[in-house]
Each structure stands twice: as structure tokens, then as C-alpha cells.
Write a structure and sequence with these properties.
Layout: E1 8-12, H1 17-28, E2 32-37, H2 40-49, E3 54-58, H3 64-78, E4 83-86, H4 101-111, H5 113-129, E5 133-138, H6 152-174, E6 179-185, H7 211-224, H8 232-245, E7 249-251, H9 254-268
Helix pairs in contact: 1-8, 3-5, 4-6
Length: 274
């Protein structure tokens, strides 16, 4: 679909990382932007830095009513929405044995239920518009290669986002709908997700991280600074290109493609040259 003057893009998780870069990217393309995040101060700071028409809406994506309110606000202010990026995400870092049920509820609530809530709130309205629109759901490399240690809840949530996105694409294609779908699977990209606990609800207490969890977070941080890392701006550019060209898979690096291929070779019981 075309991104033109008058297009409206909604981005959750917009106060940092890929979400903030998406806000800048859509605004640079001429879109009005509705930026959502749970962190009011950071959200307002990012919104103030974007050149263009931006509406900041404090939103907890784990709460269904917040997404309905976000959709109401976007449509009430602009009359239409053309792109919805369900992008908010958090993570804990611990082996499964050390993850608490509060850890699971928090991560799944934001990463998976946040996408479900976003689709549920916006999709019927996008369909009712009867014009081209696009949904982008943020998964991860972990959504395709999920055996990453100390990231159990995160892995589960991101596999779920891929499954939801594939199902949604199939259903919309079968219906001949003008609403497209993409699933974003970034790999090594510096974002605020390594310090997600800054936005963890106080009612869930603090994360008690064991040594293996700390080691995994340090390893991920090192990967974010490695030679294969992509910046949030580069990933946002990939997203805008996928929206314009109705491309489903947004895989942000060739290194990731190799990991995905290796996994499927293992499933198939063959080798890359077999």
C-alpha cells in the first residue's frame, strides 16, 4: 500500500528502540503518527522529537481496554487508521526453572496479549474502512529459532506472534481483504528491551535474576553491539518497505536466515547439502 500525506500510523512501544524509529520513519513518509507506550515521560520525549503530526497516548498493551481506548483516540482524531504496528515488548532473563508465574504473566501479557489486543481493537475498524491498510506485528528471531536459553517466556510469546500473524494473513487473503499483514523478526538491534524491568508493574515485584540469566543478558547485549547488528532506524526502514510492498516476512539480517535454515534442516533430518 502507498504511504501518502494523510495516512495514519499507530505504533505501540513507541517510546524507545524500534518503536521510536518507526514513529520517526512514518512521520518522515508524511504520515500522521499515533505513538503509544506505558512510559509517559519517555513517550512524550520521543513524540516531541518527531517532526510532523504526532499524538502521544499512554497505553498499557496488556490491558484490552487500553487498546480500545487507543483505537478510539486514533479514529476520533484522524477519522481513519492505515497502519497498525503492534510493537511493544519486554523480556525477563532467567532459566525456566527460575522464572516465576509473575514473569510469565508479564511477558506474555505485553508481548503476546498486547498483539492480540491490538488486532482485536483495530482489525474490525480497518476492515470497515474498505481501503488499503496494514498490520505489522513485532516478533523476533526467537519467533523462528526459539531455543534461546534464559528467554523462555519471551520465546513462547514471540512464537505466538508469528502464529497469529500467519493465521491472520491467510484469513485476510482468503477474504480478498485490502488489509495486509507483516511480521517483523528482528535479530541483533539495540533497543530498551534489555532493561525492560524499568517498566515492570510494581505489583509483580522485581525480577530475581540468577547467574545464568545475567550471563544471557550480557551475551545478548554483546550481540547488539556486534558486526551483524542493525540499528533501529534500519529496521524501521525495512518495515516501511514491507508495508509499501505488502511483504509478510521482515527478516532483518542474512545471519538470521542462516539460523532459520539450520533449524529447518534439523527438523527435516537433512543437511544444507543433503
Amino acid at each position: 500500500m502507498d504511504l501518502t500525506e494523510g495516512s495514519v500510523a499507530v505504533v505501540t512501544g513507541g517510546a524507545s528502540g524500534i518503536g521510536a524509529a518507526l514513529g520517526h520513519g512514518f512521520a518522515a513518509a508524511g504520515c500522521s503518527v499515533v505513538l503509544a507506550d506505558v512510559d509517559r515521560a519517555a513517550l512524550e520525549s520521543v513524540a516531541d522529537a518527531i517532526e510532523g503530526e504526532v499524538l502521544a497516548v499512554v497505553t498499557d498493551v496488556s490491558v484490552a481496554a487500553d487498546l480500545v481506548r487507543l483505537a478510539d483516540t486514533a479514529f476520533d482524531n484522524f477519522g481513519a487508521v492505515h497502519v497498525v504496528c503492534n510493537n511493544a515488548g519486554v523480556s525477563t532473563f532467567n532459566p525456566v526453572v527460575a522464572q516465576t508465574l509473575d514473569d510469565w504473566h508479564w511477558v506474555l501479557g505485553v508481548n503476546l496479549w498486547g498483539v492480540v489486543h491490538g488486532v482485536h481493537a483495530f482489525l474490525p475498524r480497518l476492515l470497515a474502512q474498505g481501503q488499503p491498510a496494514h498490520i505489522v506485528n513485532t516478533s523476533s528471531l526467537a519467533g523462528l529459532v526459539s531455543g534461546l536459553p534464559s528467554l523462555g517466556p519471551y520465546n513462547v510469546s514471540k512464537v505466538g506472534v508469528v502464529a497469529l500473524s500467519e493465521t491472520l494473513r491467510m484469513e485476510l487473503d482468503m477474504a480478498g481483504s485490502p488489509v495486509g499483514v507483516s511480521v517483523l523478526c528482528p535479530g541483533s538491534t539495540p533497543t530498551g528491551i534489555l532493561d525492560s524491568e524499568r517498566n515492570r508493574p510494581a505489583a509483580l515485584g522485581t525480577e530475581t535474576r540468577v547467574a545464568d540469566g545475567d550471563m544471557m543478558r550480557d551475551a545478548v547485549r554483546a550481540g547488539f553491539e556486534g558486526p551483524g547488528a542493525r540499528t533501529a532506524t534500519e529496521v524501521a526502514d525495512d518495515v516501511l518497505d514491507a508495508v509499501r510492498n505488502d511483504r509478510f516476512w521482515i527478516i532483518t539480517s542474512e545471519e538470521m536466515r542462516d539460523l532459520v535454515s539450520s533449524r529447518f534442516y534439523e527438523i527435516d533430518g537433512s543437511t544444507p547439502h543433503g
